[in-house]
Every structure is written in structure tokens, then in C-alpha cells.
Amino acid sequence: MPRRPPPSRRRAPRQERAQATCDAILTATARVLLRDGYEAASTNRIAQEAGVSVGSLYQYFPSKEGLVTALMEQHRARTLADFEAGLVPLAGQPLPVAMRALIRQVLAVKRENPRLNQVLHELMPRMRQWGLSDVYSQRLHRLVRAFLAPRFEDLRPRNLDMAVFILVNAVEALCHTALTERPDYVEDDAFVDEIAALATGYLRPEPPPARPRGAPPRRGSAADADSSGATCVR
């Protein structure tokens, strides 16, 4: 049974100085996670890294889990805001063009801080154990769905929610794996083109080329089966 979700903050900062303190604490959280890992990280180490007392840290964040949750929320909120802004000028673009632009944007975000992206990705299972719902993933799915909905009649999949689920997770998995295993691909436009071709081919596959008039049907085709009365199985 999942633990009760830890709150990300005790109270929200109301003054500019308090906000600066919170930002410094979250920046320190990221540095400690990158340097020491989640298990070795502690509120004492994070407070020392931020240059504040542990008491000041606890004024805003209830625990190490709360710090990690707040860091995740901050990081994903910024990422999602950039993604949403990038969707706006692509609304009227052809699907292949839009797909390439969106995939470039996803890779650009991951390139900004690849180690932090990796650490936060590895912490996602812990957040699920805490019972936290990934509201940013849900919002991302809604944004992609809204982007594809006006094009729905031209798409092959008939279940748009399922198509969005498959598309988002496939692109995210490929981009993340490239970042960790083949970083040379992340900078390669050919990699962008290949993922875009994969996504576009899934959403709107090209029809098979027309057979020239009078050309014999391919072996094993429906026409071949009809003419012979059966299709040979080899």
C-alpha cells in the first residue's frame, strides 16, 4: 500500500527574499542529488549546501521527500511551459513538420541538464510509491491530445486517447534512451528525422504505392489468392 504522499512544501513563500531562499534550497537539492545520490542526501547536507540553517529549510519543506517532490514539480513545470509555448506556432503546420519541431524541442530540454533529467527520471518510481500522481504527465497528454484532435479525421488510429498514450511514451522513451546511451544521437538531425518518421508513420501512414496498370499482382496478395483459389503457404 503506498505511503501517504508527502507535501512538497509546508508553506508558500510570500516575499521576494523568502522565494530566493526556496530557490536556493531547491538548487542545493539538485546539486546534492547529483553529487551524492538520493540515499546519501539529507536535509542537513542540503541546508549546508544552500547556506541556510536546517530550521530555515524546515520552514518551507517538511522532509527530504518534500524537497525532491518540489524539485520535480519545479523542473517539470518549466519543461511543460516551454513545450506548451512551442505548440502554439505549430498548430497550422503539416504533421511531419510539426513532429520534427516538437521532437527537437524535447531533445533540447533534455540537453539542458542531462544529469538532472536522468536523476529525476530514476526517482519517478519512488514518487509513485509515495502515491503521487504525475499531474505534469497528465497535462502533457492533454496538450498533445488537443494538438492532434483537429487532425483526427486524417489520422489512422481511431482511439485518440490510446494514440496519444502510445505516441508520448514512445517518443519520451527514445529521447531518454538516446540521452543516456547514445548522446551522439541527441545532436544528430538524422535522429530527429527518424523519430519523426516513426511518429508520423504511426499516426498517418503513407498508402502503398499504386500498382501500374496491367502489372501482375505480387505473390501472396489477395488478388493472387483469388485467381488461384488459395494462397500457397511455404
From TrEMBL:
Location of the DNA-binding region in this protein: 42-61
Lineage: superkingdom: Bacteria
Keyword DNA-binding: yes
Bilayer-spanning residue ranges: none
PROSITE patterns: HTH_TETR_1 (PS01081), HTH_TETR_2 (PS50977)
InterPro entries referenced in this protein's UniProt entry, alphabetically: DNA-bd_HTH_TetR-type_CS, Homeodomain-like_sf, HTH-type_TetR-like_transc_reg, HTH_TetR, TetR_C_15
Pro residues bias spans: 205-215
Gene3D superfamilies referenced in this protein's UniProt entry, alphabetically: Tetracycline Repressor, domain 2
Positions of the HTH tetR-type domain: 19-79
Biased composition (Low complexity): 217-234
Region (Disordered): 202-234
Entry keyword set: DNA-binding
Protein name from the UniProt record: TetR/AcrR family transcriptional regulator
Organism of this sequence: Corallococcus caeni
